[in-house]
Every structure is written in C-alpha cells, then in structure tokens.
Design a protein that fits this description.
heterodimer, A: 270 residues, alpha/beta, Rossmann fold, six-stranded mixed β-sheet, four-stranded antiparallel β-sheet, 12 strands, globular, B: 437 residues, 8 helices, 39% strand, disordered N terminus, binds adenosine-5'-triphosphate, binds magnesium ion
C-alpha cells in the first residue's frame, strides 16, 4: 500500500493568533506537490506544524502518517518516522561541525529505535557516504568541518539542507523556499539530488515563489495558499500561471481568504 | 600523633601541634609562624569586601574543619585527565598528604623534581627557597591566603631545570575525604627554556562529599620556558573551595593555563597571571559547568608589567538548575607595558531560568600604546535550535547536550591537550540533563 501523509482540516495558531484555518492536503509517497501563495499566507506555518514545532499550536484537525495520527509525536519521532523539512531559515548551531551533526542525525533517523549513547554509524562508512553526497552537490569537503549553518551564505545554507535530505533519505520532504538563494547551477544540483534519492521514493512538498525548481521537478499538483487556507489546487500549469501572473485572480476569486490574509499581514505588522 | 591534632578548629594549640610534627628548615618555619600571626589577626572576608560582595560565606564555619587530622582510608576516585595518556610521572595525595609519587627515571636523571612539596623542601630546601620567598601568593592578601601560607601541607612540586623539555605530561590527583581538609600548595618552576605539561585534578572520595580546600598555586615560568598547566576542580558537592593562584611569566615565555571548574559547593578563586618579561605570552582557558545550588566565583587578573606581552583569556560557563557563577576579570596594564595585546572574554549559557551568571569585565590601563578588548555574553539554549536538531532525529536531551558541547567548542579548540578536551567534554556531557523553562 502506498504511504500517505494526510492533513485534514488543520487549524494552527502561533502565540494565540490563528494562522491556518482548515488546511486539507494529502501527499502520497512518490508524488510531487507545489505549494505557492503570497508572503505571510501560512506556507511555512504548515511545514512547521507538520514537523511538530512546539510554538505552532494545532487547535483543530489532524495530521496522519499512514493512517496514524501523529499530532502527539514530538519532532524527534516525526523525523525518525521519515518526515523531513528543509527550512526557509535553518538554525545555526555554533561549535558543532556539520559532519558530527549529520553523523548523529543520520544514525538516529536510520535506526529510529536507537537509544541515546548507542553506537553511531561507523566513521569510515559515514565519511565515505558524506563525501560522495557532497561531491554530487559540488560542495567543498571543507564544508563538513564548518559549524552547522554558522556564518553560511544564504545559498550554502540551502545546499546544506539538501545535503541533509540526501543523507537522511526521508519518505516525505517539505522544501521551504529551498530554491531561493540558490544560484542556477545549485538549483540544478538540488534537483539532481532529489532525483537521486528518487522522486518516486519521496512525497515532496515544494514551497516556492519561483518555477526554477518546479521546472525540473514537475509537480503532480499545485496548491495555492491564501489567508491560511488552500484555496485552489491544479496541475503544473497553475504553478506557471501564478509565477507569471501573480495572485490577483486568486484574490478576486476568494475574497474571504484574501481578507483573512490582509488581516494576518496587518496583525503581524503591528 | 598527639590527641590534640584530632580536634577541629584552627586554634593556636592546633597550630603548635602541627608545627611540632614538621621537620622543616628554619626559614620555612619562620615563614609559617609569620603567616600564622597574620591569619590570627585578620578577619574572615565578608560581603563588605568588593571581591566577596557576590559570594556569601556566612554559612561557612572554619572551625568545623581541622588541621592535619588523622589520615583516613578512602577509595580513590577515577582520575579523569590521565586516561590514555603516557605519563612521565604521577602523584596522589589524600587530604593534602602525599600517598604516592613517581617520576620516570628518564626525567629524574635530568634533574627534574616532581613530588610532594613538603618532602621536596626537606631534600632541596636551598634550591626551592628563593622561589617560595618570591611569595607569588602574598600571605597577607587575606585570611585565606594567610591560612594556606601558615598551614599548607603535602602539595605538589614540579621543578624543571634549564633547557629540559619534558614531553610526557605529569599528573597529580588530590583527593579529599568526606569532611576532610585539603591545604595543598602547588609550586611549579620552569627554568629558562624548560618545557612541561602538568595535569592536576582535585576530587572528593564521594561525589557528594564535603570538606574544606584552602589552596595556593604558584607557577614560575622563566625566560623562554613553556608551561601547559591544567587544573581541574572536581570536588564533591559539599566542599568549600578557596584558592589563590598566581603565575609569573618571564620574557619570551609561554603559559597555557586551563581551568576546569565543575565541583564544590562554593568556590572563590583568584587566578592571577603576571607577564613580567618582554614578549611573554599567556593563554587562560576557563571551562565551568554548574548545577544544583553551586556558587562559583572566579576573579581573574591579567597583569601586564612588561612590553610586547600578550594575554588572552576565555572563560565559558554553562549553568544548570539554581546555580550561580561570578566572573570578575581585570586587565591591568602598567605604564611601561607598551605594545600590550590583552583580551578577555566570558560567555555564559543558561540552561535554566533560575540560574544566574554575573560577568564583570574590567580594564585598568596606564600605557598608551596597547590593544585591549573585553566582552561578555549570556544566552540561553534557543528553542528553535532544539527544534531544528529534533527534526534531524535528535532527542531533545541529545540536542541540549550537543548545543552545550558546541558552546564549549571554542574554548576546547584552544586547549592543545586532547585528553583534557575529552575529559572536560565527557564530564560536562554527563552532567547536562535538560533545559528548564
Ligand atoms: N514563529 C512565529 N512567531 C510569530 N508569528 C509567526 C511565526 N511564524 C509565523 N508567524 C506569522 O504567521 C503568518 C504566516 O507566516 P508564514 O511564515 O507561515 O508565511 P509564509 O507563507 O511562509 O510566508 P513567506 O512566503 O514570506 O515565507 C505571518 O503573519 C507570520 O508573521
Ligand atoms: Mg515561509
């Protein structure tokens, strides 16, 4: 049976402020979905809620992995179950080297039942794999010795997120604006990385404002978020339309959601 | 041993009895008596003294502890710093009484002295006298310094003659029994061009043991010599730790001094580095981890007395539970100490909202051509960082541990002795539980 990540009528609030107002989205393993929408409409909030960020409070609805409600799981359990997110703004962890960070991460995700203190993946095996993946992404080997996201350029951070995805080989991956900040070559490499893990092995949600990443990873579905709701779903042609035409048609078609979006933007501006 | 010795308290009788058991040269006895009279004249420090303003010792009762109590049998705690290290010599003391001391023939044949300071003084009094009489730690500094100068026993001596490079680390372990007293004194002398690494650690026989440590450390690094000195304080959680520590770094000499502060109930330490010859260099590293209701107060002093010297101090502390640290740092540059480069920095990582770190840097500069910088930071483990690591398969606890070890990495990177980095990293890792909101 195909594995599924199913989001049903999801309501999310941040600091008591409602952001998502009933999101429905089903991603099957092997599918590529694009998620577009104006700034502040709630795209990253959806990703964070799926990953289990404690600041994003789920006030209604459910998130199910293969039929099991995962809302009570913490981020550790979700990541070990194969859900991954490449963040729009990854966090720096000063003093912790990329290689060290990833060796631990990779071990934990590959052996979800690992208890703290148990063996890590053998160093040689890990190094070999890491070097290979970094080579594919044309990353300087020196990168492995740098501290996690500490002083990385915007593009380096995004490459590092792709590298992590490549090492962790998730079942479901949310790429939150991974393409912004990447130069044209890097977008190509990122796409190759996705293809290498096997686009057909992953359920992918690409959050983007561009169509560069989508060109190489043609979405099976495109969703539009407005004011904390998915208001429209279409195919790849919808992504192209939004990219070239903008959101005027969408706003006009969904005045309620557009108004909610306005209200959210104003509230956060205060 | 006479019965008076087993009574508690630092009384005249106790001191007289102590002196009657010592078989020391007259100059040393005179020095002890002189310091003793200072001790009896001085009052205990109190919150009126600036150095003690943030460190409350009203619950400390000196009379509960005793001078030269009978030796007790204890099981030795595991030494942390010596794991996997090929040592050139080692020494163990219990309640500042030497119980073991070895130095490899390779080094003793070249004139290196390593062992208990009191025995060494009996055998090599003439050689060591001038160094002790330099009084790096002044007996009149305060009542605590006077007590140590009068009553120290056991202790560690490392003497390396001119030009001898001891390339195997030496290790000393000072153990305190529960309720015991440690009045140790460390003297290290590196003659011109000599080199050595001394790893010393202090620990209680029980992790929750109590007691009193009143100690002094004097490091004399002569012209062109290089000393790496590590001092890991890992006393039991009931120990009162009072110490005066001072180094003299001569022309072209180099000192790397690493302090690990993990143990004790309350610590009040003065760590003083004086750069007394041109082009002297000192690097001071401090690694502190506190928990429970621990209170650790470190006063550091970088004294530039000569031209072209460099001192670089970095203290990092992570605080758990309701613990508290106080760091007061001073860079003093004398009028003649032109072209000084001096840095000091203190970073604190709070692992609970009830912990508190006071960070008080200070500069006192009398020369006009100097580069001095100081800074301090205080931060918390960030929830977003924790979340980020958890989305990469880390448990919350693993994530906290990793972030804490990352925090210390900058100071570990400076410590050039692998076993020390590892021991400190592991000891801290074991202590980290979770962050408390
Ligand atoms: N951690 C947070 N704290 C406070 N407000 C937040 C937080 N995360 C999101 N918000 C608010 O929720 C709303 C939606 O933000 P979100 O980041 O999900 O938008 P987005 O669609 O990803 O936008 P963009 O395209 O700019 O990345 C915004 O008003 C934002 O300010
Ligand atoms: Mg976003």
């Amino acid at each position: 049976m195909v594995e599924t990540l199913k989001i049903t009528d999801l309501h999310v609030a941040v600091e008591g402020k409602p952001i998502l107002h009933g999101v429905n989205l089903t991603i099957n393993r092997g599918e590529t979905h694009a998620l577009m929408g104006p700034n502040g409409s709630g795209k990253s909030t959806l990703g964070n809620a799926v990953m289990g960020h404690p600041s994003y409070e789920v006030t209604g609805g459910s998130i199910e992995l293969n039929g099991e409600n995962i809302l009570a799981w913490d981020a550790t359990q979700r990541s070990r179950a194969g859900i991954f997110m490449a963040f729009q703004r990854p966090m720096a962890i000063p003093g912790v080297k990329m290689a060290e960070f990833l060796r631990h991460a990779t071990t934990n995700v590959r052996n979800p039942d690992r208890k703290e203190g148990e063996e890590l993946i053998p160093m040689r095996q890990f190094r070999k794999e890491l070097t290979e993946k970094m080579g594919q992404l044309r990353m300087d080997p020196e990168f492995a010795r740098r501290y996690v996201n500490d002083g990385f350029s915007g593009g380096e951070m995004k490459r590092a997120e792709i590298l992590q995805m490549a090492m962790l080989r998730p079942k479901f991956a949310i790429l939150d604006e991974t393409d912004s900040g990447l130069d044209v070559d890097a977008v190509k490499l990122a796409s190759e990385s996705i293809a290498e893990i096997g686009g057909d092995q992953m359920g992918i949600l690409i959050i983007t404002h561009h169509d560069k990443l989508l060109e190489r990873n043609a979405p099976d579905f495109t969703h539009v978020m407005l004011g904390g709701k998915l208001v429209e779903t279409g195919g790849v042609e919808l992504a192209h339309e939004l990219y070239t035409e903008g959101y005027d048609r969408i706003r006009a078609a969904y005045p309620e959601a557009a108004a909610a979006g306005e209200a959210m933007t104003e509230a956060s501006a205060v | 041993m006479s019965a008076t010795l087993t009574k508690t308290g630092f009384t005249q009788d106790a001191f007289d009895a102590f002196m009657s058991t010592r078989n020391e040269p007259a100059w040393l006895s005179d020095l002890r008596r002189d310091s003793w009279s200072r001790f009896t004249e001085m009052a205990m420090p109190s919150s009126r003294d600036e150095e003690w303003m943030r460190t409350d010792i009203r619950l400390f009762k000196l009379d509960k502890y005793s001078l030269a109590a009978d030796a007790v049998e204890v099981s030795l705690p595991q030494a942390l710093l010596a794991t996997g290290v090929e040592l050139g010599g080692r020494g163990v003391s219990i309640d500042s009484r030497s119980v073991e001391s070895q130095l490899s023939e390779k080094w003793s044949s070249r004139g290196v002295l390593f062992g208990s300071l009191d025995t060494m003084l009996v055998e090599h009094g003439d050689l060591l006298r001038p160094y002790l009489e330099r009084h790096l730690v002044s007996p009149s500094y305060d009542k605590i310094a006077a007590l140590n100068a009068a009553c120290w026993s056991g202790g560690n001596l490392l003497f390396v003659p001119k030009g001898v490079r001891v390339d195997e680390p030496l290790h000393s372990l000072s153990v305190m029994s529960d309720g015991g007293t440690d009045l140790g004194k460390t003297l290290v002398v590196l003659e011109e061009g000599a080199e050595a690494t001394l790893l010393s650690e202090t620990a209680s026989s029980e992790p929750d043991g109590g007691g009193l440590h009143c100690g002094s450390i004097e490091l004399i690094v002569e012209r062109g010599a290089r000393l790496r000195y590590v001092n890991l304080q890992n006393w039991g959680s009931g120990v009162w730790h009072f110490a005066h520590q001072m180094a003299h770094v001569g022309a072209n000499a180099n000192l790397q001094w690493t302090i690990g502060a993990l143990g004790s109930r309350l610590a009040k330490v003065n760590q003083h580095v004086a750069l007394i010859g041109q082009d002297a260099e000192a690097q001071v590293n401090g690694v502190m981890f506190t928990q429970g209701k621990q209170h650790l107060c470190y006063n550091t002093y970088q004294h530039h007395q000569a031209e072209y010297c460099q001192s670089d101090l970095l203290y990092k502390a992570a605080l758990q539970d309701q613990s508290r640290t106080v760091w007061r740092g001073m860079i003093k540059v004398d009028e003649g100490a032109q072209r000084t480069n001096a840095y000091q920095r203190n970073d604190n990582l709070m692992l609970s909202t009830t912990a508190r770190a006071d960070s008080i840097p200070g500069l006192e500069i009398e020369a006009d051509d100097v580069r001095c910088t100081h800074g301090s930071t205080s931060g918390r483990v960030d929830d977003h960082q924790l979340f980020y690591a958890m989305t990469r398969g880390y448990t919350r606890k693993e994530a906290v541990r990793m972030i804490v070890s990352g925090f210390f990495q900058q100071v570990f990177d400076r410590i050039t002795i692998e076993s020390v980095r590892e021991a400190l990293g592991e000891a801290i890792g074991r202590r980290v539980r979770d962050i408390e909101e």
